[in-house]
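In response to the reviewer comment on reproducibility (Comment 2.3), we provide here a single inverse folding case reported in full, input and output, so that an independent group could reproduce the run without further information from us. The structure tokens appear first.
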């Protein structure tokens, strides 16, 4: 009891702390979405606290460096996410833009893949691409002359393209006219799981205490008189 009850209580308190962290994160994300859009045409290289912030960017797409992220689903159909780097005006920096989803059938019909020419203004939100838990080797196989990868990492794209890119990507807004289907999922952050785990750990501590009391208060059998 001395070992298990404090251990279970400590685990319960740890889960309550994790729940508080999730609530704070959800609040911060909501505040970021409500803040005014950042202009990427001003120097912005830090990503701390910037994910999901709205941004605007003015520049030119580098269409020859477009890649496709394969096996992306939309309404049960398989397709690709179209990633095109944009060279920003004023700063000359390069940022990756996820222009949206295109189906396999649409890709086969689009020869070449359409990309807005000239200077263009885009809107979107900052995204930090993350590799999967188990990374596969990335090849540069091509579909319709465009490389397609199973996932996107900034380091691999920089090595492949020879471009120095900003340490984040842009999920282009569905309100922009140019591009493809853009229905980006909104992250749902809930503390319910951690609250449930905390209740379980506290229940284990209570059960341990009850068992200890039950065993401690058990009467010894009466000694048989000789």
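Designed residues, in position order:
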């Amino acid at each position: 009891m001395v070992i298990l009850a404090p251990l279970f209580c400590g685990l319960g308190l740890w889960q309550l702390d994790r729940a508080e962290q999730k609530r704070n994160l959800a609040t911060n994300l909501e505040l970021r979405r409500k803040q005014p859009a950042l202009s990427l045409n001003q120097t912005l290289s830090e990503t701390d606290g910037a994910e999901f912030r709205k941004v605007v960017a003015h520049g030119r797409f580098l269409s020859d460096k477009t890649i496709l992220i394969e096996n992306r689903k939309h309404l049960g159909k398989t397709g690709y996410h179209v990633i095109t780097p944009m060279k920003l005006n004023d700063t000359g920096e390069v940022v990756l833009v996820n222009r949206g989803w295109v189906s396999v059938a649409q890709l086969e019909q689009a020869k070449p893949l359409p990309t807005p020419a000239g200077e263009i203004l885009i809107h979107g939100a900052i995204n930090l691409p993350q590799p999967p838990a188990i990374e596969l080797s990335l090849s540069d196989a091509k579909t319709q002359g465009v490389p397609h990868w199973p996932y996107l990492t900034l380091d691999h794209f920089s090595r492949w393209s020879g471009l120095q890119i900003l340490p984040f990507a842009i999920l282009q807004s569905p309100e922009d006219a140019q591009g493809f289907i853009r229905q980006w999922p909104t992250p749902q952050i809930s503390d319910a799981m951690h609250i449930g785990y905390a209740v379980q750990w506290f229940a284990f501590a209570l059960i341990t205490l009850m068992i200890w009391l039950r065993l401690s208060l058990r009467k010894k059998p009466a000694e048989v008189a000789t």
